[in-house]
Amino acid sequence: MNTDSLFRPFNLKSLSIKNRIVMAPMTRSFSPNGVPTDDVAAYYRKRAEGGVGLILSEGTVIDRPSSSNDANIPHFYGADALTGWEDVIKNVHQAGGKMAPQIWHMGIMDNHHSGWIPPVPFEGPSGLNRPGFVNGNTMTDSDIADTIAAFGRAAADAKRLGFDTVEIHGAHGYLIDQFFWNETNKRTDIWGGKTLAERTRFGVEVIKEVRKQVGEDFALIIRLSQFKPANYTNKLAATPQELEAWISPLADAGADIFHCSQRRFWEAEFDDSDLNFAGWVKKVSGKATITVGSVGLTGEFLAAFAGESSQPSSLDELLRRFDRGDFDLVAVGRPLLSDPNWVKKIKEQRTGELKGFSKEALAELVME
Ligand SMILES: Cc1cc2nc3c(=O)[nH]c(=O)nc-3n(C[C@H](O)[C@H](O)[C@H](O)COP(=O)(O)O)c2cc1C
To answer: Is 43 part of the annotated catalytic residue set?
Structure first.
């Protein structure tokens, strides 16, 4: 397996990375009261030392009173949390890495199993997390305006603290995705609509505000998924034409890189072509894309939450698609959660030393 092509540099605006491997954003819940600790900084530093090109942080929430359902998920606002993040990016840079925070608002959520609840009810386009499940408020126009502004402030803070780029979390059934999905966006005002293109307005306004705050030269990533945790086979865009109608306004608003979340990167997005989600988004937009989903592993990530282990698997199919030019960057989640040296091992062809993934790794910040 010749992986040399994954070790070519990538440059786009503010972002200049030494290889094509991205650490996927992974929530860890190790930031008490929303403040990243020294351990969190050490955890990311280890991944930079292990050769990851670009680290995407775990989702870190914006300044809205119910943007999170978990007291141990990091904030990206407030002096203490931002000081913690400044320490993270300093550590990553010292180790030769590059990093973006993944800025996040969860929208309507299930209550967390810890029993912690935010000080005010969850908020979303229509109070819905999934069909038939209401757990919060329908956002007013002023809630929406404040939320867009809070995304912008978080992005401005990311740039000010020295991060290399920023990722907006628009995937996996959270707030921005709740606006995209017809099952969770029942609005009849300008924030809703029958078509996906109409329901993309909120995402577009978030990107425009972020772009305004960070300027033209700062690389901006948005993460999207067709699937929802409540519906794995969901397709927001059922055809390439619908995909283009979704992606084009986001690109026009200022997104530079689309992070196309799939559970298995090798699955074709539409009939009559083997292109995956990242492949199609690159084709319809001409923008850079990141693929993700079970790279180097036998099993997918949602099953991992139910305790399923995965073994290392070949990168041949990934490389076939990458070398064909389907996508620009490759995100890797669980292998890097369990092993800070995964990239080094791949580069040095030490495949016999790869660890795979088991659920025990979720319970700690693995440092070795
Ligand atoms: C423990 C864990 C936490 C995750 N948290 C996030 C998150 O905060 N934001 C996000 O966009 N995706 C999150 N994901 C999804 C990953 O970014 C990634 O897309 C998924 O794990 C598939 O990649 P993999 O098969 O290489 O693990 C999480 C996945 C795991 C395993």
So the answer is: no
